[in-house]
Amino acid sequence: MSDRQLHxxxxxxxxxxxxxxxxxxxxxxxxxGYAALWHPAALxxxxxxxxxxxxxxxxxxxxxxxxxxxxxxHLYQPDDWxxxxxAAHAVKFAATSDRNESVGLLKDALREANETGxxxxxxxxxxxxxxxxxxxxLLVDSLFEAMDHEKxxxxxxxxxxxxxxxxxxxxxxxxxxxxxxxAEKLQIARxxxxxxxxxxxxxxxxNPKELGTAWPDSLHKNIPLTLLAAGEDLERLAxxxxxxxxxxxxxxxxxxxxxxDIACGSRRERDEAFLPFESQLWNLRExxxxxxxxxxxxxxxxxxxKSAYHxxxxxxxxHLGFKHAVLVSFDGATIPSLRGTAAxxxxxxxxxxxxxxxxxxxxxxxxxxxxxxxxxxxxxxxDAAPTVALVHKGQPPFEAYRDLLALAELAPVFGQWIGLGxxxxxxxxxxxxGSQPADDFFADYLDDxxxxxxxxxxxxxxxxxxxxxxxxxxxxxxxxxxxxLTPNDATDLAPLDDLETEIELRGVEFPADAADxxxxxxAREEATLAARLADRLQVRSEPRPGFMIFNPCSFTRRAALExxxxxxxxxxxxxxxxxxxxxxxxxxxxxxxxxxxxxIPATPxxxxxxxxxxxxxxxTIRNEFFEMDVDAATGGIRSFRDYRTRxxxxxxxxxxxxxxILKVGAIKVTNAGSALGEITSEGELVSAQDELLATxxxxxxxxxxxxxxxxxxxxxxxxxPSGYPWHGYFGARFGWRDDRGVLFRGVNGQNTQTGYxxxxxxxxxxxxxxxxxxxxxxxxxxxxxxHGSRMADVILVPEGERQRSFELLLSLDRELPMQTAIGxxxxxxxxxxxxxxxxxxxxxxxxxxxxxxxxxxxxxxCPASEGMNRAVAGQFLETxxxxxxxxxxxxxxxxxxSLVDGLGExxxxxxxxxxxxxxxxxxxxxxxxxxxxx
Length: 934
Prior knowledge:
Shape: elongated
Number of domains: 5
C-alpha cells in the first residue's frame, strides 16, 4: 500500500436528520462512485479507507490521489483542475447512474495512469464483497455522525484487514476471512452505538404484468424473503413461467423452515372492500387454498397490492386461519397512521392479527440507500425493535441492495434479515392499537376505475355483483335445506361451484356488452334447486295448483310479488298481507318465515279486498308506515315522513354535478291499488345555458305491509360526464331537515358513525337525530359524497358508466337495518307446483336462529364427518354490535354439531341443547357452524 488517498468529491453527505431528495441519477451516481472507490484495484493504491470530501479541500490535488466526481450536481472547481490532477499524477474518473459503467470508468482511468495488476480484471464475485464492506463502513461512519457520538471503530485494525484481503485477492487466494474480520469490527462498532438488534425485511411483489422478472437476490442466497402475491398470479406464474415458479418452489420444503414466506391475501386482486361479505370470504379462502395447492405450504400472512382494508378484516382473517397481516398501503389508500413497525390489530369482536405497519422502502430507488443512515437512525431511536424493510415491485434493484446482501454474508453488521412470520415471534409482538374506526380506511376505487381503468361499469358493477352473490347464496341455501331433509342427497352442485368461481373471478369487472351469461346460468340453477326442494316438501301433498315461495334469508321477510294471468286477486290469508288485481296482473305481499316457504293457491280468491286507505293520489303515495309527497318542481321527493311526528325525514332530487336545473314534464299516479301505490315522474336535466344533459324517469312505490319506499331511477344521458368522477357525475341527492343529524353507514355488516366527506356505504346510510333513525339503502351503490351538513349524493353515472337504471330504498326507524339491506337484494324464488300445501302446513320454517341480529349469510352443503350421512355449514355474522347467546334450529334435528373455521376445519364440538344448537358470540363476530345427520 502507498500513501495515496481515495476521495469522492461532492457537496453532499448521507443525510442524517431528514431525507434528502436529489434526482435519481444524482443519488445513483453518488453511491456508485463511492462503491467504485472500494474496487480492490483502487484500494490497493490507498493508505486509508475511501472518504467523501468537499471539493474546495482538493482544489490542489494530492500526489497520486484517486478522485471520483459523480455526474451532477455541478461542482465548482478551478477551471484548470484537470491540469492540476495531471500535474500531481493523480487519477480522476466520473461516476454515473450505472454501477458497471462507473467501475469501467475507474479502471480506464487507472490504466491511463499506467496502473496495472490482476485486480483490474477481478470478476464481480471478487469485487462485490469489497463494495459491500465499503457500504457498511460508510453507514457506520455516518451513523456515528448522525448520533453525535464518538467514533468507536478501530479504523487502523479495520484497514489492516482490508489491506490483507486486497493482497490475498491480488494473489488469487481466499480473501473472505480478512473481509469477515473487517465486517465484524464494523459490527462491534455499530453495537456500541445501537445495542439493540436491528431487523431487515425483504418484501417482493409478484407483478402480474411482468411475471418473468427475475427473483430478488435474497431468494437465491437463502436470505429470508416475504413474497406478496395473489393466488391467481401464482397460478399464472406456474403456467406461463414454469422455470421461475420452480425456482420459488425449490425454496419451500413442506414441513421444514423456509427462507420464503408467502403472503397471499386474495385469489384475485380486485376492488374488494365494498364487496359482499361472502365474496370477501371467498377471496380469502381461495387465497389460502391456492397457495396450498400450488406450493404445498400454508400461508398465514395476509397482504395485498391493492388495498382492501376495513375494521372487520382482522376478525375475518382469524376466521380463515391467517395470523399475520401487512397493514401497508401500496396504492395510496388511506389507512390508520401508526408510528411503530408492528401492531396487534383487533376486529370488533376482539380477535386480532399481528400486523406489519411500516411502509417498505423501494429497493430499486437509489434514494432508499442514499438516505439509509436517516432511516437507520429513525428506526434505532423510535422502534421497539429497530426495523428497516425493503420492497421489490418488479423493477431491478439498485446495486446497493446487492451490496447489503453481500455485507450480511460477511457479518450481521446491521442486524439480521428475517421473514415476516419469524419477525412477530422473535422480534416484536406489536403494540395493541384497538379496533380502528371505519373512517380511517378509504380506498378511492371510483377514481381508479374511472381515471385509470376506464371501466364501462365503475358504479353499476357493484349492485350487479351484489345481487348475483345473493342469488348464488340463495341457490346454495336451497341445496343445503334439501340436503338436510334428504338422506343420501345426490344433487350435483359442481355447476354451482363452477359458477361461483366464475362470478367471483369476474368480480366487479363486467363485460362491456349487456348480455350476462353467468347471470342467466345462475338463474337456471336456482330455479332447478328451488323446484327440487319444493318436490321434496310436497312429496305427500294432494294435487292442487299453487306457488311455493322460498325465503333464503335467516329472518322473516315480506316479499312483493306479481303474477300474470291469474284472473283475479289472491285471497288474503295468514301469509298474504296485501293483494290486488289490476290490468291482468295480480300483486301480493307475502310474509315468508326464515329459511322457510309459503304455499299460496294459483286460483283467484274471489272478491277483491276493500282498500283501507288510498295508496296513491295526486302527488302522494302511502302505506301504514309512511307517506311520501312528490315535488312538482323537481319530480323528486318533497317529503318522506312518518305518521307520528309528520316531520320530513328525507327530500330528494336528481342532479348533475357541477350544476343542473330540473324541468318536470309529467307526474302521474301509475297504480293506486289495495296492495301497491305508485307514482312516476318524468322530466329533463338541463344546464344553466338550457343545454339538455339528460332525461329522467323516477318511479316511487309503496307496498302495503312493507316498511320501505322503493325508488327506481332511469336516466337517458345526452351529455356524458367527464373528468374527475367525484366532481362530474349524475347522481341522486338526498337531504334532511336538520344539520345536527349524525351520519352512520353500513359497511361489511356493521353500523358505524361517520364524519367522512365520502362515506362509502354499499349497504345503507343512516341519518340519526335523537330517537329518529332514517335510512337510505343503496343496494350496492357504494359511492356517496356529502354536500354541507344536510345533503349527500349517491353517485350514479360518472364518466364511462353505461348503466342507466338504478334502485334505492328509503325506510324509517329500523332496529335491524342489515336485515333490510340483505333482504332487499335477496331473491324470493317462486316455483309453480301442481300440488297443494306441504303436510307441515302452508307456511313453515326449515331452519331458524332466534337472534335477529345474528344473520346467517349462507347455508351450504359440506363434506360429512366419518359415520355421518350428510352435513351443512352455516356462516354467521353479528350485525348489531352486541354479543350474546342464540339458538340455531333445523326442522330436522342434527345428530352432531361443531364450530368450524372459515376453511371448514373443526374448532370445537358443540353440545345440543334439546333440539337447538347453542351459540355464544361477540359483537361483530364471524362464526361458522357445521350440522350433521346420520
